[in-house]
Amino acid sequence: MHIGGLSRCGRKRTYRFLLQALQHVIGNTPSFADYLARKRRGKQICKVRAAIVRKTIVAIFYILKNKEVYRDANMSLFARKLKEINRLSLQAA
């Protein structure tokens, strides 16, 4: 399914938040860092950023659709964050 190309009609603030989050993802996920290195050869950085944003949104979509953990996730970090979320939810209740 092809919806269309990128345009400048989107929400700029959302895109900026995604870019900030992606800097964290790229720094901590080897598969995203490799993808960045492959895409960066001979392309403008703005096109590379758009490709990484798209890849992240697609990954998030499939994670939510299939109700699974991201395959490149750091499982010890994931377990720690899940434990903290559960603790906070119990305090709020």
Q: Radius of gyration in whole Å, from Cα?
A: 16 Å
In total, the number of strands is: 0
Helix content: over 70%
Roughly how many Å apart are the termini? Answer: 42 Å
Which structural category fits the helices and strands? mainly alpha
Report the sheet-strand fraction. Answer: under 5%
Shape: globular
What is the succession of H and E elements? HHHH
**Which runs of at least 5 residues are low in confidence (pLDDT < 50)?**
none
* Number of helical regions: 4
Number of domains: 1
| Average pLDDT for all residues | 80
* Sheet of most strands: none
Question: In words, what does this structure look like?
Answer:
By secondary structure, the chain is mainly α. It is built from 4 helices and no strands. It has helices at residues 12-28, 30-40, 45-66, 75-92. The mean pLDDT is 80.
List the helices and strands and how they pair.
Blueprint: H1 12-28, H2 30-40, H3 45-66, H4 75-92
Helix pairs in contact: 1-2, 1-3, 2-3
How would you sum up this structure in a few lines?
The chain is mainly α. It has helices spanning 12-28, 30-40, 45-66, 75-92. Helix 1 packs across helix 3 (45-66).
Keywords:
93 residues, mainly alpha, 73% helix
